[in-house]
């Protein structure tokens, strides 16, 4: 039982990232009808927003009279720099700001990701609305490669560790919480926080679409764009904003994922293909389907990664998601919650 619960927790953790990226993909496809293969790159850029803010906050100066670092009486290197935030806000507050750089990156990433999304949509993708999906895939995949190489040029090819706040370092005794023996199920605090954050973000997106006037107009435009346009509503402007919001969702997923998986330039591609499988399994254009499929496939992949399963079926953890997609699409060609007529022309 403890192994089952642990794998479910692992699956929800991994599924959270899948669900958030797939949610953004589905938002873009549902509003603009664009198959955006650059969406994984937006997840990557979000992660590097966290890296960038951390580097900005740790920019420092060498105090006057500071001596070089020494070991065993031998001096080496340069004197230790003091971050400017410690100089401006005091040592305790400055260290706390640096320590909480990942959560603070949310505030930094939201405007950055919305701006990048709007620029992408207005500058490139709007020219491919009426082009075949194959053209959209080619141009957005090319854009993803360009963005990936830009990140590689400025940040290098190696992973960049970005630690979680000290308050969330360590593990939570989940087994004791549900009445099991203490120490049976230990799970990292930050992974639990990531799952809670993903649920909150998913809820916020659905609430925005359902309970705001802007969201209602967007949903109406997704269902019948021509009629909404005839009512004198600028649907294109709203859809551009939705592209920016979808980019922000992917970026925030990347920001909060940095302590789990140290950012690197190809992390977007690592998640992209799986996220598209999630979208197709959930049903093209279905937001609830994308979220449901993300969590289900995350849990399935987690169980397939168990040592007992790998010993029985070596390598199954690498292909289980695709095998599940084949089975689901053979039995339900539109996916779990797909709508009739979507990508069936």
Key features of this structure:
mainly alpha; globular; 345 residues; two-stranded antiparallel sheet; 15 helices
- The end-to-end distance, rounded to whole angstroms, is 47 Å
The ordered string of helix (H) and strand (E) elements is HHEEEEHHHHEHEHHHHHHHH
The radius of gyration computed from the alpha-carbon positions, rounded to a whole number of angstroms, is: 22 Å
Structural class: mainly alpha
Question: What's the gist of this structure?
Answer:
The chain is mainly alpha-helical. The protein has helices at residues 2-32, 39-57, 84-89, 91-99, 101-123, 133-155, 174-177, 189-211, 213-223, 225-230, 235-257, 267-282, 287-304, 307-312, 316-331, and strands at residues 60-61, 68-71, 74-79, 82-83, 171-173, 186-188.
């Amino acid at each position: 039982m403890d192994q089952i619960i642990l794998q479910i927790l692992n699956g929800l953790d991994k599924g959270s990232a899948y669900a958030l990226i797939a949610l953004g993909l589905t938002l873009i496809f549902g509003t603009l009808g664009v198959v955006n293969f650059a969406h994984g790159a937006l997840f990557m850029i979000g992660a590097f927003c966290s890296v960038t803010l951390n580097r900005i906050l740790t920019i420092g100066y060498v105090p006057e009279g500071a001596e070089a670092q020494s070991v065993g009486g031998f001096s080496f290197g340069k004197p230790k720099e003091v971050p400017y935030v410690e100089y401006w806000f005091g040592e305790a507050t400055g260290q706390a700001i640096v320590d909480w750089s990942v959560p603070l990156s949310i505030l930094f990433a939201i405007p950055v990701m919305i701006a990048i999304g709007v620029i992408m949509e207005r500058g490139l993708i709007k020219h491919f609305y009426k082009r075949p999906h194959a053209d959209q895939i080619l141009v957005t995949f090319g854009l993803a490669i360009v963005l990936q190489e830009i990140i590689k040029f400025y940040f290098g090819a190696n992973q960049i560790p970005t630690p979680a706040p000290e308050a969330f370092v360590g593990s939570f005794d989940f087994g004791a919480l549900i009445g099991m023996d203490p120490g049976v199920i230990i799970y990292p605090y930050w992974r639990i926080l990531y799952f809670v954050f993903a649920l909150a973000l998913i809820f916020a997106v659905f609430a925005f679409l359902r309970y705001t006037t802007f969201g209602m107009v967007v949903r109406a435009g997704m269902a019948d764009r021509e009629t909404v346009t005839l009512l004198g509503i600028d649907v294109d402007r709203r859809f551009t904003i939705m592209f920016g919001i979808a980019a922000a969702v992917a970026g925030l997923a990347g920001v909060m994922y940095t302590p789990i998986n140290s950012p690197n330039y190809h992390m977007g591609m690592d998640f992209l293909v799986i996220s598209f499988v999630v979208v197709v399994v959930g049903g093209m254009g279905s937001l609830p389907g994308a979220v449901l499929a993300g969590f289900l496939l995350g849990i399935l992949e987690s169980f397939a990664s168990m040592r007992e399963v790998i010993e029985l079926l070596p390598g199954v953890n690498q292909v289980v998601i695709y095998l599940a997609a084949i089975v689901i699409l053979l039995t339900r060609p539109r996916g779990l919650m797909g709508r009739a007529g979507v990508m069936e022309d």
